[in-house]
Design brief:
- By secondary structure, this protein is an alpha+beta fold.
- It has one domain.
- Helices cover about 15% and strands about 30% of the residues.
- It is built from 2 helices and 10 strands; from the N terminus they run E-E-H-H-E-E-E-E-E-E-E-E.
- The chain has helices spanning about 25-40, 45-50; strands at about 1-10, 15-20, 55-60, 60-65, 75, 80-85, 100-105, 120, 140, 145-149.
- Strands 1, 2, 9 and 10 form a 4-stranded antiparallel beta sheet that branches. A 3-stranded antiparallel beta sheet has the order 3-6-7. The chain has a 3-stranded antiparallel beta sheet with strand order 5-4-8, with no helix packed on it.
- The chain is elongated, with a radius of gyration of 17 Å.
- The N and C termini lie close together (about 5 Å).
- Bound molecules: zinc ion (2 copies).
- The site of one zinc ion has 8 residues, from loops.
Amino acid sequence: MGMGYTLVCKKCGYSRHFFLGCGMMYNEVLRERTEQAKSGALGERLKELFEQYPNGCIDAMNELYYCPDCRRVECESSLDFYRPKNPDQEEADYFAPDMDQYELVETREHTCPKCGRAMKKIMRLTENEPVECPECGGVLEGGHPLLWD
Ligand SMILES: [Zn+2]
Ligand SMILES: [Zn+2]
């Protein structure tokens, strides 16, 4: 099962679909991202965090990020870093770690590939925090999260 999300602009007709969850693939993605993180391929900071908390765990779920400056929307692996609440816990097994057993250490900063500013995670679209259309600056609306098998 995976999850997707569609952003739609009613003003200019822009629409883009993002795949968020990766369902059965999640363990593969998590394993791959963890190896990259430990080797430093995802930046020095994650490597340091894994050195500090070898039994830590990253969140490899895809999330939507939005650049408030240039309105770019990207779908990226969250890469927030967690450590076990119980310090004696063994290394995370990749098979769907029970995130209730973990606590957040640090959120990963996502920077805009276009302008280099910090992007914000889009939790859901609300009127308080409108996400603007990359094409025309109109307010984007979200299609309902779409589930499939
Ligand atoms: Zn638009
Ligand atoms: Zn930007």
